[in-house]
Amino acid sequence: MSLEDRAKATGKNLEGKAQEAMGNVTGDPEDKAEGKAKQAEAQARHAGEDLKDKAKETIDRA
């Protein structure tokens, strides 16, 4: 995973956490849901890129 992709996924996660927190403060369920969705998207990006990294490591060892 490139450093740029990791930074983007981390940024998306932080954005989601902030939006969820704002939803908690304001009581806006839509903000909370969107924040959680952004966090889930970031986790999925990280997981997909981690799989790519593992595959590359396996190929490099072969």
From TrEMBL:
Signal sequence extent: none
Region (Disordered) location: 1-62
Membrane spanning residue stretches: none
Pfam families xrefs: CsbD
InterPro entries from the UniProt entry: CsbD, YjbJ_sf
Top-level taxonomic group: Bacteria
Feature: compositional bias, Basic and acidic residues: 1-18, 29-62
Coiled-coil regions listed: none
Ranges of residues in domain CsbD-like: 5-57
Family: Belongs to the UPF0337 (CsbD) family.
Protein name: CsbD family protein
